[in-house]
Amino acid sequence: MLTHLACSLCGKTYDWNQVINTCTCGKPLLAQYDLSPSTLDRKALADREPTMWRYREVLPPCEAISLGEGFTPLHHAPRLGERWYVKDEGVNPTASFKARGMSAAVSMAKHLGVKVVAAPSAGNAAGAMAAYSAKASLEAHVFMPRDTPKAFIVECDYLGAHVNLIDGLINVCGLEVRKFIDSHPSNPPIFDLSTLKEPYRAEGKKTMGYELAEQMQWRLPDAIVYPTGGGTGLVGMWKAFDEMERMGWIGSDRPKMISVQAEGCAPIANAFAKGERFADEFPNAHTSASGLRVPKAIADFIMLDLIRASGGTAITVTDAEMVAATRELSSATGVFAAPEGGATLAAAQKLRDSGFLSSTDTVVLFNTGSGLKYLEAFV
């Protein structure tokens, strides 16, 4: 049962039954639940629908706006590594992991009486917000960099969203969202669905952690390699592991959480290398993997804390390395990965070569989207 929202930095608590974005200190709010072994018997999952809403007791208490998101395949990839797996989020609705977060966020927005939503996006989040808003009969406004791959722009347009193309990166788009909301006062207010600037996208993303545990018979892998832009997936999965332990589903062992960023946009990797808890905005950010082009993340300290707590690391790869690795991953597994997915393979291979990952480690690579949306990156 959802009990309240809590600030991820200062710990201040809030009633969840309201339209709210961040804490008064400006940091993310995370949903908190009353959890115990009686909350949900994991054996009950056997008879439930193969979507992320199978974990409904640990998700927001609202009517699900669902397009069938979640329960994506976990592919064994022995041609890449003896005990390596690929979690393919590209088969979600709207062809990316963003479907999970937007299903939860739009569902709660609808539950709270919101009529209009807005968000900045490098592409996939915009498409997901547009799709779930269409199903929920909400008005959606997306703000994307002008050089966003065309597939995302067409997708949002056809799904009925108002598309705003901005000269600048996603952080500039975020500023434009705030200007738009401030210049259009309403009751209820336009709800800003920016990454981790509302409490519920992380709730959808955390289901990747629940699924991974279920698909691996409740034994977590030795390492999770995750492409990191805004970082909601890392934050969500770490939260899921804690929740599952509180319900008695898993023990206290955790995977090494490995953050992968593009060399041309690496605020988390840089802060990790310097031993810092907060990351500076990355200057002149550039990469062909649009989902990794996030020069400043509001959840920087959460990611850096969990990476260190897990014994993980943060690493960069070049665009050339990720494109080459995307071809290798795709041809070895049958999963046509996004460049962000290829980045995880390039990083894992580097870490295996350096000895950080051993040949006997169970490693899960997250492919966060379909390569079909990124054709410009491959030609």
The largest β sheet comes out as:
6 strands, mixed
- In spatial order, strands of the major sheet run 4-5-13-10-11-12
The CATH class name reads: Alpha Beta
Q: Would you tell me the overall average pLDDT?
A: 96
Structural class: alpha/beta
Shape: globular
Order of helices and strands: EEEEEHEHEHEHEHHEHEHHEHHE
**Any idea how many domains?**
1
Tell me what the CATH architecture is.
3-Layer(aba) Sandwich
DSSP helical segment count: 11
- What separation lies between the terminal Cα atoms? 48 Å
Provide the CATH topology: Rossmann fold
Q: What's the β-strand tally?
A: 13
Radius of gyration: 19 Å
Stretches with pLDDT under 50, minimum 5 residues: none
The percentage helix is 25-40%
**Percentage of β-strand residues:** 15-25%
At a glance:
This protein is α/β, with parallel strands linked by helices and 379 residues long. The protein contains 11 helices and 13 strands. Helix 6 packs across helix 7 (232-246).
Explain the overall architecture.
There is one protein chain. 34% of the residues lie in helices and 16% in strands. The protein is α/β, with parallel strands linked by helices and 379 residues long. The protein has one domain: Rossmann fold. It has a six-stranded mixed β-sheet with strand order 4-5-13-10-11-12, with helices on both faces. A hairpin with a 5-residue loop joins strand 1 and strand 2. It is globular.
